[in-house]
Amino acid sequence: MTSPPRRDATPRIGCAGWAIGRHDAALFDDGDSVLARYATRFDCVEINSSFYRPHRPATYARWAASVPAAFRFSVKLPRTITHDARLQRCGPALDGFLAAAGQLGDRLGALLVQLPPSLAFDARVAATFMTMLRRRWPGDIACEPRHASWLSEAADALLQRHRVARVAADPPRHRDDARPGGSDALAYWRLHGTPRLYRSAYPPEALARIADEVDASACARRWVIFDNTAAGCAVPNAAALQARVKSSSFHHGALWQDAASRRRPDEP
Question: Which of 60, 108, 130, 217 is deepest in the core (most CB within 10 A)?
């Protein structure tokens, strides 16, 4: 019998993007750039801008050089793949994206595949795409489907076979959206803000519930990304969750190993 993957002691908690508002500045140490400052507090970040436009390989390389060795990026696949091509006949686009994002090196921690709400689960299309993606990327993949058909047992089994996590999203579009699914190697929460999408802060009682869910997960790796960035709520919510998650051992500034290696990155 295969034993379950060993769980990392520390869940990764961060934000979608690394903007720091003036009211949150005291949470961070000094740094040569906004990203470098962000990385003194958090050990991961989700890059969403890659969904809207491509970034140059040199940009990814600069971002990687701006953070400590233990820091990880999650990078969202371009909409040309997920929304325009709808996962079909997108090999060249996927190659171009991975060639650029691959410049993050070992700091590339996960790929995020967010699907359009209109994209229903099609076993053939999904299997073909996941096989193609897996041939190119052996690391963690999180998929955020938004059509109810992806919550079926067949869809979950397919994600498990390809070692792809199904995102736990808040607010959920469907009943089971709020819990992680798919691979037992990765649990990935995306917290978009509720009731006002992208704007609402999570109150203490909601953060306590999220902390319990994260701590209870047996997945080998756990990511929690706050996407409620529009009104500046992501950073304080992420910092508050850090303090609540029982198994978190991340300490302020502890990730830095060589401050001299920092460089100024481009903005996301």
Answer: 60
Element (H, E) at 161: helix 153-161
Q: Nearest Cα to 145, choosing from 137, 156, 135, 134?
A: 156
Predicted TM-score (pTM) of this structure? 0.90
Q: 164-166 and 168-170: which strand pairing?
A: unpaired
Q: How far apart are CA 264 and CA 225, in angstroms?
A: 23
12 neighbors 72 (Cβ within 8 angstroms): yes
70 alpha carbon, distance to own chain's centre: 15
Q: Which two tokens stand for residue 159?
A: 């994600």
Tokens encoding 210 = 């999220």
**Tens-place pLDDT, residues 184-239:** 999 999 999 999 999 999 999 999 999 999 999 999 999 999 999 999 999 999 99
The backbone torsions φ and ψ at residue 11, rounded to the nearest 5 degrees and listed phi first, read: -75, 145
- DSSP letter assigned to residue 80: I
- Report the C-alpha dihedral over residues 155, 179, 118, 133, rounded to 10 degrees: -50
Q: Determine the Cα–Cα distance for residues 208 and 214; give it in Å rounded to an integer.
A: 10
User: Would you say 40 and 33 are in contact if contact means Cβ atoms under 8 Å apart?
Assistant: no
Instruction: Name the CATH code of domain 12-250 (choices 3.40.50.300, 3.20.20.410, 3.30.1330.60, 3.20.20.80).
Output: 3.20.20.410
Alpha-carbon distance of 14 to 48, in angstroms, equals 13
